[in-house]
Specification:
elongated; Arc Repressor Mutant, subunit A; 5-stranded parallel sheet; Rossmann fold; alpha/beta
């Protein structure tokens, strides 16, 4: 029997998952949580075999944070609406055993859960390739700068918003241009959008 816990902050999605997965003869739904703190307590309390975890949670935390803070025990399977290369890369680096789209058919989700329960990976070959090719993501501060640039703010306005000098913002943008091989703010924003760096809290 696979002891499964679900971490999902959207009630309708959580209820749907619990209803579907709870009907499987080899899966026991042991608990659910809606945010990182509640999930940590849940994991300590019920010690599930697998945690099916949403990537982005309304509380501001995310599945990566939960994996990083969890003690040895459960295997993690990331569930997300955002299938972008940088997320695949972070999922692999964080120690997750798989990454599933929220739009995947129920059969795909069930196969992934059973694969992870048997010690196998539930990453597709396409996800692994995309993760290898994904550029290194920006730091939290760099992502904040890119997000403000995407809003159309000038260097001075970005600096004022973040409490930094315009020259500091200019220097940081120049480093970002070099790192991601771009020559304009527009192109930098486009790369960030393609990689999913502007989705949610960076």
């Amino acid at each position: 029997m696979i002891r499964l816990a679900v971490v999902e902050d959207h009630p309708a999605v959580a209820e749907g998952l619990c209803a579907i997965l709870g009907d499987e003869p080899d899966i026991e739904l042991v608990a659910s949580a809606t945010d990182v703190e509640a999930a940590r307590r849940m994991i300590e309390r019920v010690n599930p075999d697998i945690v099916l975890c949403d990537l982005r949670l309304a509380s501001g935390g995310d599945g990566f944070e939960l994996i990083g803070s969890a003690s040895a025990g459960p295997r993690f399977l990331i569930l997300s609406a955002y299938g972008v290369p940088s997320y695949y890369r972070r999922a692999l680096e964080s120690g997750a055993m798989g990454f599933i789209s929220k739009t995947a058919p129920v059969g795909v989700i069930l196969r992934a859960i059973r694969a992870v329960a048997s010690g196998k990976s539930a990453f597709t070959s396409e996800a692994r390739r995309a993760a290898r090719e994904a550029p290194k993501p920006p730091t939290r501060r760099e992502a904040q700068i890119i997000r403000l640039v995407a809003e159309g703010l000038s260097n001075a306005e970005v600096g004022e918003r973040l409490g930094l000098r315009p020259k500091t913002i200019e220097s940081q943008l120049r480093r970002l241009f070099d790192r991601y091989d771009v020559s304009s703010r527009t192109r930098l924003v486009r790369v960030a959008e393609q990689q999913g760096w502007l989705v949610g809290d960076p």
